[in-house]
Amino acid sequence: MANAARYNMGSIRPAVIGMGRVFGASLTAVSAFPVDTKGHHDAGEEGGSSLWVLAVASMVLVLLGGAFAGLTIALMGQDSIYLQVLSGDPAESQSKNAKRVLKLLKRGKHWVLVTLLLSNVIVNESLPVVLDRTLGGGVAAVVGIIFGEIVPQSICVRYGLPIGGYMSTPVLILMYLTAPVSWPIAKLLDWILGEDHGTLYKKSGLKTLVTLHKSLGEISERLNQDEVTIITAVLDLKDKPVAEVMTPISDVYTLAEDHILDEKTMDDILSSGYSRIPIYRSGNHLDFVGMLLVKTLITYDPEDRIPVRDVPLGAIVETRPETSCLDIINFFQEGKSHMVLVSEFPGSDHGALGVVTLEDVIEELIGE
């Protein structure tokens, strides 16, 4: 953002300087005009009073030049996205200032820039005319640079937002006063360079930003490692396929549809710790016909030795391995199922690769 502001300032500064010199030409002409010779007594009185006038005028011009130079840094250095973040946070101490600056910049960032540069150039072109007659050329240049450029810009770099918020109304008034000149130039810049919309981050940039918040800022406001892990994992959900988080089919606890639910099988099911068990067709370990909910077995007696096919089975949903984790978690949120079969050929009797559950996605989020 700062680079963009410097680019804009550099691109329009020559034109603005030219206009400023036109406005300041009259003062230069006045300074060069010969003064009528008067008596010693009158000349002494006039010399004393005019010196005070020149001193006051010099102070006013230096302050104005510094204000315009500082406000250029204070306002142009603000990122509109960052201002929206601050203005939308009621707990943020600079929320009011952010709203004021954002409201001002929405009228046209180039309009604000041209107004401040034009005003600064007019003052800077007029300042040597007055300051040279008060302090002399060399001293005047040093005073003008220190108090008209270095000091105000240094202050506004550090306290740009509060100063910009406090001075937003005077700047708006100045924008309307210079509108006949500044507004057309600003619109031309909008057309040539485009309007500024703030800094937007890609996902990789957001992850870097989140990671930086683990070590920067006040200790009480820093993110801990768990928060960083979860936030970055959420940002990766859309681009991460389920094939990366699924349990391979070779590691999945499965049963054949003709398997007898005797006491040993019941013990194995309970000791496995799974709440859902994929059921495959007898003779084909990759052709799944349904899903057994373990809680339904509570009504069955192992001594009955019934086959799995006689127990009501739930439907098993199938998906391709490239399906994103975000789509899967959205499906799980619908409450229809908490297990999905990952298959290269969904709906066929072959191609099963593994299963993904809600627990798998949650573990991916928390980094386990």
Would you write up a description of this structure?
- With 368 residues, this protein is an alpha/beta fold.
- The protein folds into three domains: 2-193, no CATH class; 203-239, no CATH class; 242-366, CBS-domain (Roll), CATH 3.10.580.10.
- Helices cover 59% and strands 8% of the residues.
- The protein has helices spanning 2-32, 40-76, 80-87, 95-105, 109-135, 137-158, 160-166, 168-177, 179-193, 203-212, 225-236, 263-272, 325-333, 358-366, and strands spanning 247-248, 255-256, 276-280, 288-293, 317-319, 339-343, 352-357.
- The protein has a four-stranded mixed β-sheet.
- Mean pLDDT is 82; it is low at 1-13 and 22-45.
Largest sheet: 4 strands, mixed
Helix count, DSSP H or I runs of 4 or more residues: 14
Shape: rod-shaped
Give the SSE string.
Answer: HHHHHHHHHHHEEHEEEHEEH
Q: Tell me the domain tally.
A: 3
Number of beta strands: 7
| Measured distance between first and last alpha carbons | 38 Å
Q: Helix fraction?
A: 55-70%
Oligomer: single chain
Poorly predicted sequence stretches spanning 5 or more consecutive residues? 1-13, 22-45
Domain CBS: 246-308
Keywords: CBS domain, Membrane, Repeat, Transmembrane, Transmembrane helix
Subcellular location: Membrane
Protein name: Protein MAM3
How are the secondary structure elements laid out?
Blueprint: H1 2-32, H2 40-76, H3 80-87, H4 95-105, H5 109-135, H6 137-158, H7 160-166, H8 168-177, H9 179-193, H10 203-212, H11 225-236, E1 247-248, E2 255-256, H12 263-272, E3 276-280, E4 288-293, E5 317-319, H13 325-333, E6 339-343, E7 352-357, H14 358-366
